[in-house]
Amino acid sequence: MASLADIAAQIGGHVVGDASLEIKRVAPIDEAREGDLTFIANPKYVAELETTQASAVIAAPGVESDRVALIVSDNPYLAFARAVEFLHVSRPASLGVMDGAHVHPEATLGEGVTIHPGCVVSAGARVGNGTILHPGVILYSDVEVGENCLLHANVIVREGCRLGDRVIVQPGAVIGSDGFGYAPDGGRYVKIPQVGIVEIGDDVEIGAASCIDRAALGVTRIGRGTKIDNLVQVGHNVVIGEDTILVSQVGIAGSTTIGNHCTFGGQGAAAGHLHIGNNVTIAARGAAAGNIPDGQVMSGAPAMPHKDWLKASMVFPRLPDIRREMQQLRKKVAQLEKQLEENQDP
Amino acid sequence: MASLADIAAQIGGHVVGDASLEIKRVAPIDEAREGDLTFIANPKYVAELETTQASAVIAAPGVESDRVALIVSDNPYLAFARAVEFLHVSRPASLGVMDGAHVHPEATLGEGVTIHPGCVVSAGARVGNGTILHPGVILYSDVEVGENCLLHANVIVREGCRLGDRVIVQPGAVIGSDGFGYAPDGGRYVKIPQVGIVEIGDDVEIGAASCIDRAALGVTRIGRGTKIDNLVQVGHNVVIGEDTILVSQVGIAGSTTIGNHCTFGGQGAAAGHLHIGNNVTIAARGAAAGNIPDGQVMSGAPAMPHKDWLKASMVFPRLPDIRREMQQLRKKVAQLEKQLEENQDP
Amino acid sequence: MASLADIAAQIGGHVVGDASLEIKRVAPIDEAREGDLTFIANPKYVAELETTQASAVIAAPGVESDRVALIVSDNPYLAFARAVEFLHVSRPASLGVMDGAHVHPEATLGEGVTIHPGCVVSAGARVGNGTILHPGVILYSDVEVGENCLLHANVIVREGCRLGDRVIVQPGAVIGSDGFGYAPDGGRYVKIPQVGIVEIGDDVEIGAASCIDRAALGVTRIGRGTKIDNLVQVGHNVVIGEDTILVSQVGIAGSTTIGNHCTFGGQGAAAGHLHIGNNVTIAARGAAAGNIPDGQVMSGAPAMPHKDWLKASMVFPRLPDIRREMQQLRKKVAQLEKQLEENQDP
C-alpha cells in the first residue's frame, strides 16, 4: 500500500489527478479493480481508459482521462515494471547459513548471504555479498558467484564457473555441464574432457532447466544483461554478447558467436561455428545455418530474410495447386506445339 | 498374482474361459509367456491370438479364442491400464517426515504424508493427506499441494503456487519459475517482477524437467485432467483447459489460452497471445501462429489445416523438378510466340 | 606439467623435435602460448603451424615444421583428447559416504565410492566400485549403477533402472521417469502405470536435463557407447543401439528402435513406433516420420534424403517467383491459344 505520489516518485513519473490515492496492487487493465494501478504501454489501448475499474493508470505523455488518475511517464512499460517491484517485491532479510546447508570450510561467503537447506557450497567456492542460494543449490569447487545474485532451487554450477553480480538463475538450470565432444576411434567415441569454464556477466538471467555447457578449452561466455528463457541449450565455447535475448527452447550449437542486442525467438536455433552479428533477430523456430551480418531479421530453417520467408510461406500451402496448374500448362503447351506443327505442315 | 476372475472383477470385464487361472503379470502380446495377461486394443491384431504365449488376453466383445482365456471388456485399453495398476502397483505405506527432510514449523502437513530426505517444505506451505514428496522436492513458502499427490525427486514448486488433488509431477519439473518479461530501457532490459502464481487442477500430470512459468500478474492455469509430457515449456499467463495433452518438448508462449481436449504433438508450439479452441489438434512439430477455432487439426509452421499440409509436404521434395519444368515451359512458350509471330509475318 | 616425451608415450605418438620440452597445458591453436600443446586434426589448418605460439603440435604423419615440436599421430584428434585427459584431468580420491548423504541400510556400496552430501541411495540400490555420486543425486529403490560411473549433481534414477560401467550422467538428467501413456475413458484420460525400467549400457553419456522414460512394460534400452546431449527426450520402450549420437534437444517418441552408429542432429526427432537402421544420419531439425533403412542421410520434416532436401530448400525462397512466373505463363499460353484460334478461323 502506497500513495500515488510515492509510487510516481519511485518509478519516475508525475501524477495527473489525485496524488493522495492509496494503491494496493498492480493489475492488468482488464482485471484491475478499485485500489489498483494499471498501465497502458501501447497507445491503441487508450480506449480502455473509458472502461477500466482501476483507480490509476500509468500512461505516456498526451494521454488524458477524467475517470482515473494518471502517472505520466515517458516509458510506461518500464514504469509499470518498477511499480510492480515497488509494491509487490520485498527483499527478504538475510538468513545466513541455514540448518541443513553444507558449506565447505574452504568456501568463502560474503556478508548478508542466505544459504538454504540442502545447498552444497564446495571447497574454493566464493559467494558474494547479499547473494541468496535457494534450497538444493549445488556449487562445485572453485565456483565464483557475485554480489546480490539469486540462485533458485536446485540450480547447479559446476567447477570453476563464474557468475557476475545481480545474476538471476531460475530453478533447475545447469551452468557448466560438459560440452558434447568426442573423438572417433574406429567405430567408437572417446570423450574429449571438457576442461574450460562458463563466465556469466552482470545482470544476466538464466531460465529454468536451461543448460550452459562449459568450454572444451577456454570459456563459454554470456555477456552482461543477456536474458535466457527456460529449457535453452547453449553449447560449449559459445560466446554471446550483451543484452541479447534467447527465448524458450532455443538451441545454440558449439563455438558460435552471437553479438549484442540479438533476439532468438522460441525454439530457434543456430548451427555451430557461426558468426552472428549485432542486432540480429531470428524469429521463432528459425534456424541460422550460416553467418549473419548485423541487423538482419531472419526466419525459417535454414534461416532466410524474414520478408522472403513470409512470402514463401504463404505460397507453400498452394504447392499442390501450382503442381496441378503446371501439369495443365504442360498439356496446353504440348497441344499448341502440335497445332502449330499441323498448321505449318498442312 | 491373482486369479483371472479377481482381475476381471477389478478392471470391469467378464471372463470367457478358465476364470481360476493364476496370472503373474501383464506383458505386451509379443513378449507374454505362460502366466501372463496381455491385451488386444486394436482389432487388426486379433490374428496374434493364434500365436501369443500369454495365458489370457483382454479383448473387445466379439473376439473369440480356443487357445487362451479372455477378459472381455468394452474398452480393452482402459481395462489393460487397470490390470497393470492392480497387478503391478502397490501404494507404499506412509513414512511421515523422514530423517533429513526439512519441514518449516509454520508448514502444515496432512495425514499419511511421506516427506523423503532432502525435501524442503517452507513456511506457510500446505501438503494434503496422503501426498508423497520424493527426495529433494522443494516447496517454497505458501505453496499448496492437494491430497494424494505424487511429487517425484527434485521437483520444485515456487512461492504461492497451488496444486489440486492426485497431481503427479515427474522428476525435476519446475512449477512457478519466473515468466520471461522485460521492459526495454534504452538498449538494456529491466526485469518485470513476476508476482503471479500457477494453479494446477486435479488429476493433472506434469512431465520430467518441464517448466510452468508463474504469471506476471494473476494466474497461469492448467485445467483438471490435463497431461503434460517431459521438457515442455508453458509460458506466463497461459491458460490451458481440461483433458488437454501436451507431448514432449512442446512450447506454449505467454498469455495464450488453449481449450479442453486439445492435443499438441511432440515439439509443437503456440505463439503468444493466441486463442486456441476446444478439441484442436496440433500435429507434431506444428506451430500455431494465429487463433484456431474448435475442432481443427493443424500441421506445419506456421500451422495450416493438416490435409493441406500433407499435400503441400508431398510436393515440397519436387520443388527442383517444378522449377526445371517451369524453365522448360518458359522456353517452349517463348518459342511458340516466336513461331506464331513468324507465321503471321511471313 | 609433463615432458613432450611423456605425453607422446601416453597418447600414442612419436615426437619430432625436442622431446624434453615441458608442456603446461593443452590449448586451441589460435590461443596457444609458449609451453602449450595444441593439435591440427584437419590438414587445411597446416598453415597455422607458421603462426601458432604453441610450443608443440599434435599432427598427422607427413606434417613438418621447423618452428615447433610435433607429436605425430595417426589420429590427431583422438591423441588431443587423450592429451587433455593426461594433462588436465585428475581422478579425485574416494571420499566415501560424506556427511549429509542418506544411504539406506539395505543399499549396497562398492569399494572406493564417493557419495556427496544431499545424495539419497534407497533400499536395494547398488553402487559399483569407484563410482562417484555428486551432491543431490537421488537413486530410488533397487537402482543398479555399475563401476566407475560419474553421476553429476541432482541426477535422478528412478526405481529399478540399471546403468552399466563408466556411465557419465550430466547434472539434472532424469532416468526412469514415467512414459507418457493414458487410456481414454470417455473424455478423460486414465494413466497407464509405467512399470518397466531403463537399461543403460557401458560407456554411455547422458546430457544435462535429458529425460529417459521407463518402459510401460519391459525395457527402454540405451546401447553401449551411445552419447546423448543435453535436453534430449527419449520416450518409453525406445531401443537405441551402440555408438549412436543424439545431439541436444532431440526427441525420440515411444517404441521407436534406432540402430548402431546413427546420428541425430540438434532438435531432430523421430516419431513413435519406427524402425531406424544402422548408420543413419538425421540432420539437425530433421524429423523421421517413417522407417529408415541402413545408411541413409536424411533432412527435413518429414525427413527425406538429405540431397533432395538441400535442393528443395534452395527453391523454397523462390516460391513467390515461381507463382508469379506461373501466372505470366498462364496468360501467355491463353494468348497463344487465342491467337492460334484466330489464325485458324480468319
Automatic annotation (TrEMBL), chains A, B, C:
**Where does the record place a coiled coil?**
319-346
Biological processes, Gene Ontology terms? lipid A biosynthetic process
Q: Which domain of life is it from?
A: Bacteria
In the Enzyme Commission scheme, what number(s) does this protein have? 2.3.1.191
Active-site annotation? 236
Domain UDP-3-O-[3-hydroxymyristoyl] glucosamine N-acyltransferase non-repeat region residues, every copy: 21-85
**What is a single cellular component term in the Gene Ontology annotation?**
membrane
Under catalytic activity, the entry for this protein gives: a UDP-3-O-[(3R)-3-hydroxyacyl]-alpha-D-glucosamine + a (3R)-hydroxyacyl-[ACP] = a UDP-2-N,3-O-bis[(3R)-3-hydroxyacyl]-alpha-D-glucosamine + holo-[ACP] + H(+)
The EC category is: transferase
Classification via InterPro entries: Hexapep, Hexapep_transf_CS, LpxD, Trimer_LpxA-like_sf, UDP_GlcNAc_AcTrfase_non-rep
**UniProt KW keywords:** Acyltransferase, Coiled coil, Lipid A biosynthesis, Lipid biosynthesis, Lipid metabolism, Repeat, Transferase
Enumerate the SUPFAM superfamilies for this protein.
Answer: Trimeric LpxA-like enzymes
One molecular function GO term is: N-acyltransferase activity
Pathway in which this enzyme or protein is active: Bacterial outer membrane biogenesis; LPS lipid A biosynthesis
| Quaternary structure and interacting proteins, as annotated | Homotrimer.
Role of this protein: Catalyzes the N-acylation of UDP-3-O-acylglucosamine using 3-hydroxyacyl-ACP as the acyl donor. Is involved in the biosynthesis of lipid A, a phosphorylated glycolipid that anchors the lipopolysaccharide to the outer membrane of the cell.
Family recorded in the similarity comment = Belongs to the transferase hexapeptide repeat family. LpxD subfamily.
Listed NCBIfam families: lipid_A_lpxD, PRK00892.1
Extract the HAMAP family matched here: LpxD
* Name by which UniProt lists this protein: UDP-3-O-acylglucosamine N-acyltransferase
Q: Which organism is it from?
A: Geoalkalibacter subterraneus
